Amino acid sequence: xxxxxxxxxxxxxxxxxxxxxxxxxxxxxxxxxxxxxxxxxxxxxxxxxxxxxxxxxxxxxxxxxxxxxxxxxxxxxxxxxxxxxxxxxxxxxxxxxxxxxxxxxxxxxxxxxxxxxxxxxxxxxxxxxxxxxxxxxxxxxxxxxxxxxxxxxxxxxxxxxxxxxxxxxxxxxxxxxxxxxxxxxxxxxxxxxxxxxxxxxxxxxxxxxxxxxxxxxxxxxxxxxxxxxxxxxxxxxxxxxxxxxxxxxxxxxxxxxxxxxxxxxxxxxxxxxxxxxxxxxxxxxxxxxxxxxxxxxxxxxxxxxxxxxxxxxxxxxxxxxxxxxxxxxxxxxxxxxxxxxxxxxxxxxxxxxxxxxxxxxxxxxxxxxxxxxxxxxxxxxxxxxxxxxxxxxxxxxxxxxxxxxxxxxxxxxxxxxxxxxxxxxxxxxxxxxxxxxxxxxxx
Length: 443
Prior knowledge:
By secondary structure, the protein is α/β, with parallel strands linked by helices. The protein is 24% helix and 16% strand. It contains eleven helices and 14 strands. The strands form three sheets. The protein has an eight-stranded mixed beta sheet, with helices on both faces. Helix 5 runs parallel beside helix 7. It is globular. The chain starts with 5 loop residues before the first helix and ends in a 13-residue tail after the last helix.
């Protein structure tokens, strides 16, 4: 979609009577499984600030990545559109300038906009990582970012000139400082800020004070962990948990800044991640898989001035719904072409129909080259995925929460399999999807 007419459709939104438009703060660590928070039932990982945030809002236990890999997920979380409609189905490809993002939508309403951390929406080589001011920043004005860099103790970022700014410490700490800097500027205007830290994405490292909190020998591997996985030992798990606890600490610093600035009550905070991490479950590593460890991501929403405390919710909430829901809470109409649903009624206590399923898509082979591109659906009860030519997996997540019994192809489950396959075909047709395999750009 082009940018013509953007002002017309954006002016359709109306803020709640007598209330200034809320701020939008999206906190997005990289490669973080949705089950690995204290508030989601993991007693071994320490996430006190995220747990408190969830207690003050809504914890979405069915928060799902539609396309569980970095670039596609990040494009979806900015546009409310499936990745194949914006040309971002794989890593290291650019989000087109003409695609309207949430930053552009809110900027038209007078919002300050800021982006901090890992961008990963450019084509070609990731380094040096400079994105010049202008249309490639997709509506973000304040900028402290790089394209993609997971060398956490020796990284750099860019502001408005091509000279890299070295970060001589764990880079998440620097990005938090920049977020606090942004929040302190012009507190009279509403803001939209995305903070996209690199951890806990591998390598699983963190500052020593956080690593010391986890003894690898005392950690519990998930029941579906398999011996011989390339990643996923207790040492990896300890580093991953340590990185999560560090990010939790940094999120706490940002939340404290909101309190100091008097912005907390009127700020929508969304916490999520671009995808999960297999970490040895089912003998697999990283992402791009249909299993829960890959597709399920954190989902926390807090907005004291606009939504009720609800504790845990089983609402199906996927990445593509993020932008429509945030704009809905802001009282701002979204651009034509958005494919997600505004689920804000469910957060504000109004009656509305719930999504029946979440559409899942991967357009390239898995990291190990083991699996071809696939499509699927996740419902509240089932996970189903298929390749172009055949069924692949079917799990009953109520009866089998660790997805250890594949029911695909079993005669007694054929009616369920057929119903879920119809859902996939319906999503495929409705979104204009295609089976053409794509390839990641050069690194």
